[in-house]
Design a protein that fits this description.
It is a single chain. This protein is mainly α and 343 residues long. The chain folds into 2 domains: 46-102, no CATH class; 112-332, MetI-like (MetI-like fold, Orthogonal Bundle), CATH 1.10.3720.10. Helix content is 78%, strand content 0%. The longest helix has 37 residues, at 198-234. It starts with a helix and ends in an 11-residue tail after the last helix. 27% of the residues are buried.
């Protein structure tokens, strides 16, 4: 009996020690600091969005009821929607609802929570598809181009990257529709439904993902190729590895690529915020049922609760993306530690 009690006490002490080590880990402290710093950022983004739409002419009720609606009907609907209240009162009502998990109700009478729960997964799948494929292709092409600078692969990727950097996503979308949907009929013109199978998902999402991912591929390829070439030609550790007889491909992939990934991860984290505009436009062009299309609809209808909910989601995605980038630095280089003195 005494032995059992001693084992239980030792087990409890071990569990408490593990909990203390987990709570004191540098990675967990980093996550905590980043999340605390994200609170004023999210508040600032939502407040500025509210302020911008408050400065615009308040014609939400007029847009809903139509131009033939009487002034009394417009005033009654404004009162029903709370649009006749002072600015800070409207913002506080929305913010207090968010703190309780309620993002409000759109001017069409739909719950913003329901709209996001329905359409956000589609947008996340589209972004993940475009981002993962563009990253994988960029890494492969950049490594092949950096292996022989000014070679055939390098010059080919330069031409393709210049095309991707020069083409706007919406213009590229129409070109993809004409070639692959109208002429070749490989993909549907309208991606109105994602479907339930992987094949239907690929057919519906490939063209929108290409329109978003091709410019990203061009940016990542040029950036990574340039960094790899500089690493291979100027860094002392590369010269040392070559002097030891390490094969060129191993030097390129194991040493140069690992260090060049830091720059690529930083750019990917910074690009997450810029994808908002691209997603909104591309989803509208292909009629993808995501929140990007809801964002443009909300802007045209002056639907502030819906816009605020979408802006909050995208801001949170950007914050979490940059946090993930910070954590991946330590994964790539274990020597990196986020102590209490770092920011």
């Amino acid at each position: 009996m005494a032995l059992v009690q001693q084992i239980q006490l030792q087990g409890g002490a071990g569990a408490r020690g593990s909990a203390r080590r987990l709570a004191g880990s540098p990675a967990l402290r980093l996550v905590g600091r980043r999340l605390l710093a994200a609170i004023p950022v999210l508040l600032g983004v939502t407040f500025l969005t509210f302020a911008v739409f408050n400065t615009l002419p308040n014609d939400t009720a007029q847009a809903i009821l139509g131009l033939s609606a009487s002034p009394g009907a417009v005033a009654a609907l404004n009162h029903q929607l709370g649009l006749d209240q002072p600015f800070f009162v409207q913002y506080w009502h929305w913010l207090s609802g968010v703190l309780h998990g309620n993002l409000g109700t759109s001017v069409q009478g739909e719950s913003v929570n329901h709209e996001l729960a329905t359409h956000l997964p589609v947008t996340l799948e589209l972004l993940a598809y475009a981002l993962v494929v563009s990253l994988l292709l960029a890494i492969i092409v950049a490594v092949l181009a950096a292996r022989k600078p000014n070679g055939i692969v390098d010059r080919t990727q330069l031409a393709i990257s210049m095309l991707g950097l020069s083409a706007a996503p919406y213009a590229l979308a129409f070109v993809l529709i004409v070639i692959f949907a109208v002429k070749l009929q490989w993909f549907p013109v309208i991606s109105g439904s994602v479907g339930d199978t992987p094949l239907s998902f690929l057919k519906a999402m490939t063209l929108p993902a290409c329109a978003i991912g091709f410019p990203l591929f061009a940016i990542y390829t040029r950036l990574l190729r340039g960094d790899l070439v500089e690493q291979m030609q100027r860094e002392d550790y590369i010269v040392t590895a070559k002097a030891k007889g390490v094969p060129p491909w191993r030097v390129l992939i194991r040493h140069a690529l690992r260090n060049s990934m830091f720059t690529l991860i930083t750019v990917v984290g910074l690009n997450l915020g810029t994808l908002v505009g691209a997603v909104a436009i591309i989803e509208t062009v292909f009629t993808v049922p995501g929140i990007g299309q809801d964002l443009l609809t909300g802007i045209s209808n002056r639907d502030v609760p819906l816009i605020e909910g979408i802006v909050l989601v995208f801001a949170l995605m950007t914050v979490l993306g940059n946090l993930l980038a910070d954590l991946m630095y330590a994964v790539l280089d274990p020597r990196i530690r986020y102590g209490s003195s770092t920011t």
